[in-house]
Amino acid sequence: MSSDVLQRFLLDDLDIRGAVVRLGPVWQQIIADRHYPEPVNGLLGEMCVTTLFITEALKQSGRVTFQLRGSGPVSLLVVDCDQRLNLRALAQYGDDLDSGTARTLLGDGRLVLSLDLSGSRAPWQSVVPLEGEGIGEIFEHYLSLSEQLPSRLFLAASDTGAAGLFLQKLPAADSRDPDGWNRIEQLAATVTDDELINLTPTALLSRLFPEETVRVFDSRAVIHDTPEDWDKVRAMLRSLGREEVEAVLQEQGAVIVRDDLANREYRLDRDGVAAIFDRSPPTLH
User: Transmembrane segments in this chain: where (predicted)?
Assistant: First the structure.
């Protein structure tokens, strides 16, 4: 089984649904060469896992972008995911960074969701204030507002992996078993970070819910696919204009365009810049 996987499941007798995410190589690709401090890695990894849960549950194809913007040492976390479960992410932070909860590191701020659905003219956006101490609590609050269903998130992230368990109480749960949601919450709360990151989804569910009927659906692979897009870079530089781009070239010796979400850098020398502006525009027919 792939180390980068999302596994949906249903507790049939209780009307409780959920999912398990386990990331290995994909998470390592996302943070490669970024040298994020440990607290930043932890926040970003947990946010990646949560974004996967929410994206996979979309009933329409589209792209989900979550931003956590704060006034604290960590000023920005961005995670972007589409219906292929293609994951991209970045973080911005200052020098005065100590360990602490998400709320301590982010300070006062807001959670911004941009939802770009196929066929829509413009992305739909939602903004809510940050509520809760950790990434899990922040997104549980968001889900309580957006879906109005009780939800729980159990998250973990390290330099080598990120993982999580998502639970959501469906409307018929109390009629199925009045104590079911409470029982499942207590069982799930026994999970450790090591179990989340290292156990396969099937093994994790068997460990947590040995007495429950768990229906497991087909797993989905998570990817980190960020091919070069020189056409986009050239179009952006043309929009700036030759004079401004050549001024950067003169000052720095090269024009460097950084795509932080894709963790990719584009570098152009004098010949590369000249090729952009000296090329004849395409003829329109």
Answer: none
